[in-house]
Design a protein that fits this description.
The chain is mainly alpha-helical. It is built from eight helices and no strands.
């Protein structure tokens, strides 16, 4: 079972998934092959590599720690059940994130009327989307404002913005995760950045 730990305040990790394995560790592809041959402990290693990063992304999407944990656990279980469908020539991370992000989007659709991102729960200390470094407010206040602005951006734009600018996935892999063509993702990313800039400047003037 996936260990349920609430997302803390991790630094933004923009490394490629292949780099998550330290020297001497098996690659994701080899771990998947071991799992397919009956080595269930190998899946625990994949969970260890991607749990925090997936939790962080899902938490930014839904704004609730417990819900993010549930969605992450569901994603890992679904990925395990679907390993026969996984193409080992491709990277495991984007495939896992596609399952997780789709689950989060489905959850948001079902809870649209009741769901609001909780500012008190949002994570702080992440990349500030080119927020001015000479902002007179305290850093913690700026981080809270960043997340308030993110919460106002529609989910289909917020998702690509988070995956690309916070988690460091290249646009080609963001496209695979969200199930859209790369030009569409690039257009959404551009619009999301414009939305963030407009909303941020509006809040600064308040």
């Amino acid at each position: 079972m996936l260990k349920r730990n609430p997302p803390g305040q991790p630094a933004v990790d923009t490394r490629h998934d292949a780099d998550l394995a330290v020297p001497g560790e098996l690659s994701d592809a080899l771990l998947v092959e071991r799992i397919r041959h009956g080595d269930r402990t190998a899946y625990g290693e994949l969970v260890r590599r991607y749990e925090k990063k997936l939790l962080r992304t899902l938490y930014r999407m839904v704004g609730k720690a417990e819900t993010a944990e549930d969605l992450a656990q569901e994603a890992f279980l679904k990925a395990y059940d679907r390993l026969a469908q996984f193409d080992s020539s491709k990277r495991f991370g984007p495939w896992l994130f596609q399952i997780g992000v789709n689950g989060a989007i489905d959850w948001l659709r079902k809870h649209r009327k009741r769901h609001q991102l909780s500012l008190n729960e949002m994570i702080s200390g992440e990349r500030s989307f080119d927020v001015a470094t000479d902002d007179p407010r305290e850093k913690a206040d700026v981080a809270q404002e960043v997340h308030y602005v993110l919460a106002e951006i529609p989910v289909k734009y917020r998702t690509v913005l988070m995956l690309r600018d916070l988690e460091g996935f290249p646009c080609s892999e963001v496209a695979a995760i969200v199930g859209r063509e790369e030009p569409t993702v690039r257009w959404r990313l551009l619009k999301a950045r414009e939305m963030f800039k407009t909303l941020w400047e509006k809040r600064v003037r308040l």
